[in-house]
């Protein structure tokens, strides 16, 4: 019997569902709970137009409340499955499963250690979330591999054919004792990648993930990369994101061709109580037949959606209001995790 040939699928491949956790008064959303729930309702409405949604809830009361809001918005509850589990926060891109597939209907859940973004926040319950979902039977017969190495899903991008894109700033913060070569070895082993592409530049003020790649640059079909640019020469991000753009232009595909690059427009600074928030258009979510794009109430929202549509042809673009999310330093992609087709019933 041959061993499975695992790979990390690209996000644009067929999906079974999207996984989220509902915000509640016991999370950091408490102060603005009603406001952020409007985003979660809009997200649920958008996802369930195209596929199933799995919603983790803290208890029966949170479920009942979420159902009431969703029903009032006309969301099709038959396309939603609720799972009761404890969680610290709702950033499931980082605490949810990174799923490998072998092409023959077998799956392996890569369960990396979740440290609350390098110990910035409590994360004990979030670190146990994947095991809880496995015990709840969400993933059928999928294998579950616990990996004692800190990594968040938002810190990596996969093209589905063996290339993984990441940032040195993030992973060197998580593993200051390791060299780049050592981290290459861990990532290639655990993700079954053929190569790791590193960016040394790029950050967003107000982002406490230490420059997650999903706030900066995303693989897209047809050897494309969509990335957050800054065209305001007076903005403190301008030079750093320009250097990142140069790094992306220097990358080559496995066939030694340059990637087709799609720079995204720059939203005007959003300041909340003296603090600048990280409004990245690169933090979009791909689902079956559509791309869900963050909108921040900025003049360039529509231009960002148009560019993302160009990079993801033949998909409907749906804008989701995400200004409430960036108050807690993340956006649309950060609160979601896609699950590959066949992983859940």
Automatic annotation (TrEMBL):
Pfam families noted in UniProt: PAD_porph
Superkingdom is Bacteria
Protein name, as recorded: Agmatine deiminase family protein
UniProtKB keywords:
Hydrolase
